[in-house]
Amino acid sequence: MNHPQTFPTISFAQKEDIHVIHRLAEEIWYLHYPGIITVKQIDYMLEQRYAPQEINRCLASPACTWFKVVVEKKILGFGHFEESPSMRSVKVDKFYMHPKIQRRGCGATLMRFAEAHYGKLGFVRVWLQVNKGNENSIKFYQKVGYQTEKEVIIDIGQGFVMDDLIMSKMIS
After folding, report:
1. What distance in Å separates the CA atoms of residue 46 and residue 49, rounded to the nearest whole number?
2. Are 168 and 152 in contact (CB under 8 A)?
3. Strand partners, 164
């Protein structure tokens, strides 16, 4: 399949982007996660992490930053990062690209943008959690320089767990 060159614009998400991010998260999760986790767990995690009031709470936090990826005047991807200044590390808490723009450099562009942003602020490590069954995402993170540190199983309530890899990358 031949795609025209995609040039994403990366910028800070704002309050007016909350509902777009919420809807985009729902669309991406229902396309991506069935077969990796159950639809019930998808529903639970979306409500827990992407309800508009939760996105608003994170936007208001000085330790959190949301970046949006705009392609052809539409938000088609986003990343949410949580700072831990005492550890000089940043967690990639949420990182999603719509399938329309996957494998076209948009995710790598956002990751490089965020790493440069946090490097300038004095952070030295970026880390994330990714479901062990999420093979395409694991391959993406490896491609952009992240290495597996360890495996974790985290109880997130309602009988659900996150069975994840912790991956990280040193930045300067």
Report:
1. 5
2. no
3. 131, 152
Q: How many helices (H) and strands (E) does the chain have?
A: 5, 7
DSSP string, 86-114: GGTEEEEEEEEE-GGGTTTTHHHHHHHHH
Give the global pTM: 0.93
Give phi and psi for 141, each to the nearest 5.
Answer: -60, -40
Give the integer Cα–Cα distance in Å for 114 and 118. 6
User: What is the CA angle 34-35-38, rounded to 5?
Assistant: 60
Per-residue DSSP letter, 170 = E
**Residues forming a β-bridge with 105:** none
Q: Which two tokens stand for residue 167?
A: 């991956």
Share of the chain above pLDDT 90, in %: 95
Give the architecture-level CATH label for domain 9-170: 3-Layer(aba) Sandwich (3.40)
Task: Give me the amino acid identity at 103.
Answer: R
Residue 44 makes CB contacts below 8 A (sequence gap 6+) with: 156, 157, 158, 160
- The per-residue pLDDT for range 23-35, each reduced to its tens digit, is 999 999 999 999 9
Neighbouring C-alpha atoms within 13 Å toward the C-beta of 22: 17
Which residues, 6+ apart, have CB-to-CB distance to 156 below 8 Å?
44, 45, 48, 162
